[in-house]
Amino acid sequence: MLSQRNMQRLGLRLAKQARPTPARNVVQRRFNSTQNKPDWIVDNAFNRERENVKHHAASTSTLWLRLSIFAVIPFLIGGSINAYNLWNEHWEHWNHMPPLEERTEYAYQNIRSKNFPWGDGDKTIFWNSDVNYHNPDKA
């Protein structure tokens, strides 16, 4: 059975749900006017400072927009071209190196204490056959 305290809680909860909605929610008041500023705004130092801050923020945001368009985008394009050129130089360098099978495999490279759970168990998850080489017989 419900105790006296639980009955009170249930009664309060039901009373809140049954309460009619206030009239202010049903009929919304609109405070539109043709004035630029309401009459309650006073011309004082605080309000003048706020207006100055708003004006400064608007001018600063246009400055940063222009910097983003006319400075950042060209730098990104230039950086991309530079990265592309360096990438091509890197692969030209690889063409002059001996084949992967003839390169020296040092003891610290491709250490395998146990097999990987994928593939043949010898290749890491980031294995690239054009760059990586591992001969298990050499190690």
From TrEMBL:
<dbReference type="GO" id="GO:0030234">
    <property type="term" value="F:enzyme regulator activity"/>
</dbReference>
<protein>
    <recommendedName>
        <fullName>Cytochrome c oxidase subunit</fullName>
    </recommendedName>
</protein>
<keyword id="KW-0472">Membrane</keyword>
<comment type="similarity">
    <text>Belongs to the cytochrome c oxidase subunit 6A family.</text>
</comment>
<dbReference type="Pfam" id="PF02046">
    <property type="entry name" value="COX6A"/>
</dbReference>
<dbReference type="GO" id="GO:0005743">
    <property type="term" value="C:mitochondrial inner membrane"/>
</dbReference>
<dbReference type="GO" id="GO:0006123">
    <property type="term" value="P:mitochondrial electron transport, cytochrome c to oxygen"/>
</dbReference>
<keyword id="KW-0560">Oxidoreductase</keyword>
<feature type="transmembrane region" description="Helical">
    <location>
        <begin position="63"/>
        <end position="87"/>
    </location>
</feature>
<dbReference type="InterPro" id="IPR036418">
    <property type="entry name" value="Cyt_c_oxidase_su6a_sf"/>
</dbReference>
<dbReference type="GO" id="GO:0016491">
    <property type="term" value="F:oxidoreductase activity"/>
</dbReference>
<keyword id="KW-0999">Mitochondrion inner membrane</keyword>
<keyword id="KW-0812">Transmembrane</keyword>
<keyword id="KW-1133">Transmembrane helix</keyword>
<dbReference type="InterPro" id="IPR018507">
    <property type="entry name" value="Cyt_c_oxidase_su6a_CS"/>
</dbReference>
<keyword id="KW-0809">Transit peptide</keyword>
<dbReference type="InterPro" id="IPR001349">
    <property type="entry name" value="Cyt_c_oxidase_su6a"/>
</dbReference>
<comment type="pathway">
    <text>Energy metabolism; oxidative phosphorylation.</text>
</comment>
<keyword id="KW-0496">Mitochondrion</keyword>
